[in-house]
Amino acid sequence: MDRRGFLKTSLVVGGTALTCNKARAQEQHDPEEFVGILVDTTRCIGCRACEVACGETWDMHVPDVLNDGALEAHRNTSENQFTVVNKFETEKGDVFVKKQCMHCYQAACATACPTEAMKQMKGGPVVWRGNKCIGCRFCMVSCPFDMPKFEYNDWNPKLQKCTMCFERLEEGQKPACVSACPTDALMFGSRLKNLEIARHRIYSYPDKYVHHIYGEHEVGGTGYIYLSAVPFDQIGFRTDLGKRPYPEYTKEFLYAVPMILFGVPAFLLGINALADAGRSDPESEFTLEFDVDKEGARNE
Amino acid sequence: MNKDVAITDSFGNFFSFLIQELKPRGPWLTPFNIISIPVILTGVGILVYRFIHGLGSVTNLSQETPWGLWMGFDVVTGVALAGGAYVITFVVYVMGVDKYHGIVRATVLNGLLAYSFYGAALLFDIGRPWNAPNPYIGNSFGFSSVLFLICWHFLLYMIAEFVEFSPVIAEWLHLEKAKRFLKKLTLGTVILGITLSILHQSGLGALFLMAKPKVHPLWWSEFIPILFFVSSIYAGLAMIIVEGTVSHRVFSRLIPEKHHDHFDDIVFGLAKGAAITMFVYYFFKALLFIHDGQWDLIVDGWGLWYLVEVIGFVLIPALMFAFGFKHRSLRIIKIAAVMALIGIVLNRMNVSVICYNWYADVHYIPTWQEFVVTFMVIFSELWVFRWFVTRMPVFSADH
Q1: Which chain B positions have a beta carbon within 8 Å of A150's beta carbon?
Q2: Residue of A137, A154, A264 with shortest CB distance to B66
Q3: B357-380 burial by CB neighbour count: b if 16+ within 10 A, else e?
Q4: A286–B129: do the CB atoms touch at under 8 Å?
Q5: Which of A105, A78, A246 is closest to B64 using CA atoms?
């Protein structure tokens, strides 16, 4: 076999292997399938172009970046703003951190929703669907990042949060904030690729970054992942959320439901038969055949 | 003239009977009416305003505190206090203990009304109530949601309670045949009702499992569903003692004489049951506390608050129940019952509201409007309860 033939064959074999792998990967919910955004806080200059682009795209609050002095305070996202940038003064100077829905790989809000109004779309983005929502706000209680925001001052309230520009993704575009970012602090792509890029940066500049990618393991992994030069608890991140995906906290309870639903009635009927309740007040009881037989035997 | 025949004969007669029954009876200017009528009217006004201007216009709810007094008290606490129905029906119909038969009707009615009114209260609290049928119809089933489970259980449990209570309605309408048929359904619905209760009492605790980072660690536990279930047992028993005591005073003329003496005996039995379940609950609490090594959490204000709840309103009333049972003291038992109820309110409010977001700088405090609406729900429930017991044979002994 010549060299070209060898290359060809290995490509074909490799390609087939990859496709097979992909087919199985789909079943296993491989993170390759999931898209996300890598935020490198060392690159962010705090220009807030992402805030403006987000507001314009979604027809919401468009901040006056030059004059509103909003970086002076630590802000939160709101029902009018899907994303905000905050400034943190650290030992390595000012650090700017973009904040928005993290798009959890296993989203607590979507698990909590009794009507599937909050739903994880194929590929990762978690979006809200108004025609299903009853406004119970259980998603807000369950979200470890407190991201869904409720319109308290509207008779017909919506739950507002970043959708990762789901509609734009379907048209093959990038999220508005990513397109607007002038310094590539935001990078959109497959989550696995983003993780590789993040790791590569840490390996290449081991002194520049803390050796931790926020969102790689937090709450079971998130679509948004962050790189930082200072420990994450200094720039407004909760570091006590754990690695366990949040839906798993209710999984055992929900698995127990069918067991209780079928086990307990059997148990109660058994107790009832043992207690022979039918004897004391026959009229109010639903008589078991078993009891009838016994009565018959007694009469004989 | 035979009243039964007259009533069931024609629809016209039935209608006039219904009108007659719906008319108010008794004196109007009672202290309860004087307090409750303005509260209910103000509450209705607040709700009209709320549906025009949104939840934020009358409540102090925020993005950080999405569930406040309405959810925490009306739903999470109210359901625990309505636990008496499933406990008593278990004892009477499943175990066949006849001693408690006399209080079944009132307790089941209480449960039925509590669930109906708290279910209705939920409609004020959710932002888009016109979508409320969504969990029940169509393709919007969130099977992975604890709240979805609770939605269904509320509905099914209300139906089960209604069937359990329906023989009384049949008796009121003098429908002997229907009553006999409905009584046959009792054991089946009781078993369904107990099963549903176990699941949704614990399910209300499971609502907070995913709120782990927000609920104070002294109140959050993986076993919170079990804690909620066990405490709902004694909550129900204590509620029956308190509610029964009040009923025996207020509706004294409706209750047959022999029932009055019998009730004291019932209270002693309930006190024993409450003491045992409270000790079990206290043991669970202590076990979790020691197992999780939470000694360092006990030193600050939150720790003190925890001790007030667990020692002051669980252990002490448990000891009082046991003491009162042993020394035949109704007085101590009744005080213990009130304390146990306060303990339940504290626990449910702590988990759902007070210790939720405990680290926040600005803490949620309900507005006066939220209190008025809460009292509106309670008062209107009492109005309906009063209507039922003065029209239907709820307290009568011959069943």
Answers
A1: 55, 61, 63, 66, 127
A2: A137
A3: bbeeeeebebbebbebbbbbbbbb
A4: no
A5: A78
Residue spans per domain, chain A: 28-108+144-246, 250-299
pLDDT tens profile A132-153: 999 999 999 999 999 999 999 9
pLDDT digits (tens, 9 = 90+) for A10-26: 554 444 444 444 444 34
Residue A193 near residue A33, CB atoms below 8 Å: no
Q: Which CATH class is domain A28-108+144-246?
A: alpha beta
Residue of B188, B191, B198 lying closest to A260 (CB–CB): B198
> Which are the contacts of A42, defined by CB distance < 8 A and separation ≥ 6?
A95, A208, A209, A227, A228, A229
Tell me which residue in B62, B134, B195 faces A265 most closely, judged by beta carbons: B195
Q: What is the pTM of this model?
A: 0.87
Tallying the residues shown for chain A, one arrives at 300
* Domain B58-391 sits in CATH 3.30.360.10: no
Domain ranges of chain B: 58-391
Fill in the amino acid letter for B7. Answer: I
Give ipTM to 2 decimals.
Answer: 0.89
CA distance A107 to A118: 9
| Per-residue pLDDT at A66 | 87
Which residues of chain B have a pLDDT value below 50? 1-3, 6-7
Cross-chain Cβ contact B192/A247 below 8 Å: no
Half-sphere exposure of B184 (CA within 13 A, CB side): 7
